[in-house]
Amino acid sequence: PPTSTRTPRKGVMAAAAKLVRKIINTPLAPRAIGPYNQAVVVDTTVYLSGQIGINPESGELVGPSVEEQTEQVLTNLSHVLEAAGSSLRNVVKTTVLLADLKDYAAVNTVYSKYFTEKQPARAAFQAAALPKGAKVEVEAIAITGCLVDE
Fold first, then answer.
1. Neighbour count for residue 37 (Cβ, 10 Å)
2. pTM for the complete prediction?
3. Cα 54 vs. chain centroid, distance in angstroms?
4. Residue 46: which residues within 8 A CB-CB, separation 6 or more?
């Protein structure tokens, strides 16, 4: 791996060394299907890997419709957030990947049931293909602790 020849400024290394990285995996959400974890917490920030609509018990997609898959995706994200000490209320950013951008409105209908107020920032893209032939994938960034709105 590349290494830096730069010398860190005095105090920078000490401050950075105090950050703790915690790996999050819960049996209530599908196991990662690659070399990654369901989430990683650094300080008070939770970085959630993309979830697709897999039932964690069967390991299979929940159904053919984008609505069914979106429900499962958001349920999976919720379980990972809980394992990380957070919740959907503390999500500050999501990225939605769609196999077909024509499903945008249907995904929004389900999404709005999970994010009812103070919705997070979001980006949405059409992807050429998603794992296991999924129709939707969502990744998120959240925080732990008490989130105060202004």
1. 15
2. 0.86
3. 14
4. 24, 39, 40, 81, 84, 86, 90, 140, 141, 142, 143, 144
> Which portions of the chain are predicted below pLDDT 70?
1-17
pLDDT tens by residue, 139-148: 999 999 888 8
Q: Which two tokens stand for residue 88?
A: 């959907």
DSSP string, 74-142: HHHHHHHHHHTT--GGGEEEEEEEES-GGGHHHHHHHHHHHS-SSPPEEEEEE-S--GGG-SEEEEEEE
Q: Which residues, including other chains, have CB under 8 Å from residue 139's CB and lie 6 or more apart?
A: 48, 49, 50, 51, 94, 95, 97
N- to C-terminal Cα separation, the chain:
43
